[in-house]
Amino acid sequence: MTSILFRRVQPNIIGTLLRKNVEQIRSLSSIPNTAEKISESHKYHVTVVPGDGVGPELMLCVREVFNAVGAPIEFDELLASELMPGRSSSLADIVASFKRNRVGMKGILTTPAISEGGDLMSLNMKIRRALDLYANVVRIKTVPGLKLRHQNIDFIVIREQTEGEYSALEHESVHGVVESLKITTYENSRRIAKFAFDFATKFNRKKITAVHKANIMKLGDGLFLESCREVATLYPNIKLETMIVDNTCMQLVSKPQQFDVLVAPNLYGNIVSNLAAGLVGGAGMVPGESYSTDVAIFEPGARHPFLTGAGRNIANPTAMLLCGVNLLQYLHLDGMAQKIENAIATVIKQQKIKTRDIGGYATQQDFLRSVLQQLEY
Amino acid sequence: VIRCKSSPVVPTRHSDIDILVIRENTEGEYSSLEHESVPGVVESLKGEISSGKYELNFMLFTLFSVITRAKSLKIARFAFEIAKHADRKKVTAVHKANIMKLSDGLFIECCREIAAEYPDIKFDTMIVDNTCMQLVNRPTQFDVMVMPNLYGNIVSNVCAGLVGGSGFVAGSNYGDHFAVFEQGTRNTGLGIAGRNIANPSGILFAAANMLKYLGLDQHCSAIKNAVLNTIQEHKIKTPDIGGTSTTTQFVECVLNEIIKLTPSIGFNYEMQKATHAFRFKDID
Fold first, then answer.
1. In A, which residues are within 8 Å of B165 by CB distance?
2. Would residue A59 be called left, alpha or beta, if left means φ above 0 and alpha means ψ between -120 and 50 degrees?
3. Are the Cβ atoms of A220 and B62 closer than 8 angstroms?
């Protein structure tokens, strides 16, 4: 049994900055600098992975809407699926395509219960690790026209995406006893904290709530909290508060209006973002984004592939269409993005065409037709 | 075990919720096996963490989350026994086995094994993030929920929030030899300490459950009915459920109600021995 050294090293910000070179400092900054990196050719190439379940049909909806507004987007489509490993593109191809194009749209990839080769890490996690997509952003906003139990919700959930409980390091040491490792590192905690504060600054948010369970996981989540507090000193205009994850969930259910920006490690972020998505209408309504320093990928915020709805023309395309809107905004095609967003908002506000998950009877194609109709005005 | 039942007297956004949340209490992520890794350990883990851009003097913490077969079988057995005795129709196991394939996979396997012995009770599984979304949209679909430690913490807090908050829900902890009764959501309420505005219903319900466990059924129902009458008839509510009364006013009213409800029993201050061993149908 190796002896464990307990040394508390006080992180020294100045020392850290001096130790790292300029390249690494830039890599710690959050929002990638898009102006120099997007190519100047007329058509923007966007990598698209349709995903499983209703993903492919939703991507078709996005394509139709983009054609209707005349967006200069060229889709490089790649099939990836853990359900059909024979037909799926290899991880190397997918990663190369995303790295080349630097933006992408992704449907939801299902993680089957048993994977080929007994691999513990899912395809999603492999893509995220390979591209270093460390931040996931889900914007939660109530949309007028839906019958919801809470109104006036407007917050953002920022979730660390590469480490934590999703490290896929599990083993059975003794028969009947399984251990799973949760990894927390200073680098990643600081990186996501900085991302959160930069994001909040960019979008004029006033308060960040760090979600943790440091009363139980004293070292791991304690490290996360310390990193958040350290970064908070650099941003005097933004208030940092901390909240334990179980209290956060209860507050989200009773008084969600109090939240502005939430930053969380991997598992809590997953749970909190799904809970928040449920508050504003479910998985069909909420778009999400994943960022690394070079690549931005737009995918639905609540990651449910809706396998049982595939091919039945019932899925709600709003989430994927809003991902498309965010993609256009990211590429600085704001006019088109605004048009599509207004069209969707109008259709939902009129409350005549609603898909099943938000309480109506319309089909997916009905919704799409009415959005296209709005775009013609 | 936390029973979340929406009562018509507390204003909530959902009605007809009656969920029993059963949470494993001793292992899982709360195993307290945490340590800061020294450079040697980091090197050996580096081979498995594919990122590889770590320096030697950064801070890395690992947490062991332990799931054992024996305890998973035990909690599953407990859940199904309660479901059977309380005439519940469905047990939902909450997990994240798509990510933690081995540990939550083991938990699910144990639940399925036990489920096979109870053919009348429906068993299904749901991933924890989907569960939270469903709880917010359609909580009436859940009946009994069983899960490991961390998800249990989160889900029980969500359910408590749905039925009125942490002041209103009682929790019970059962072991082979002991039982401990407490509030359902384990918030200490430091911010409202000493201000006489805390809601005592949760702890009063917990105390009533304890009396029932000891075999004093009538005392239990006296206390519970007294609290419900206080809120319903006399409309004395503490601030967290939308009223303006203080804790002392609430408790005074409860005491008056108890006196009204129990002239026939009378107060018997002798400590009574448990009249029977723990019965599964006494869970409330």
1. 250, 254
2. alpha
3. yes
Phi and psi at residue B241, to the nearest 5°? -110, 20
A296 within a domain of the structure (yes/no): no
The one-character DSSP state at A164 is B
- Looking at the domain assignment, is residue B137 inside a domain? yes
Question: With contact defined as beta carbons under 8 Å apart, do A166 and B128 qualify?
Answer: no
Q: Which residue has the higher pLDDT, B13 or B67?
A: B67
Answer yes or no: do B144 and B12 share one domain: yes
Is the Cα dihedral A359, A361, A365, A367 positive or negative?
negative
Ranked by mean pLDDT, the top range of A300-314, B210-224, B225-239 is: A300-314
Q: Please identify, among B110, B144, B164, the residue that sits at the C-terminal boundary of a domain.
A: B164
- What CATH number does residue A267 fall under? 3.40.718.10
R_g of chain A computed on alpha carbons: 21
Contacts of A185 in chain B (CB under 8 A): 54, 58-61
B132 & B210 share domain: no
Q: Do B129 and B14 fall into the same domain?
A: yes
Structural domain range at position A333: 43-131+305-376
pLDDT at B87 over 60: yes
Look at residues B219, B227, B224, B278 and name the one whose alpha carbon lies nearest to residue B252: B227
Strand, coil or helix: A215: coil
Picking from B30, B54, B157, the nearest residue to A216 by CB comes out as B30
In chain B, how many domains are there?
A: 2
> Which residue, chain included where needed, has tokens 């997918």?
A94
How far from B232 is each of A15, B112, B236, CA to CA, in Å? 62, 42, 8
Contacting residues of A for B153, CB less than 8 Å apart: 213, 245-246
CATH of the domain at B78: 3.40.718.10
pLDDT digits (tens, 9 = 90+) for B171-215: 777 777 777 777 777 666 666 777 777 788 888 888 888 887 777
- Report CB contact under 8 Å: B62, A254: no
A126: burial class by Cβ within 10 Å (0-12, 13-18, 19+)? middle
pLDDT confidence of residue B46? 41
Do A75 and A189 lie in one domain? The reply is no
Q: Which residue range(s) make up the domain with B84?
A: 1-32+63-164
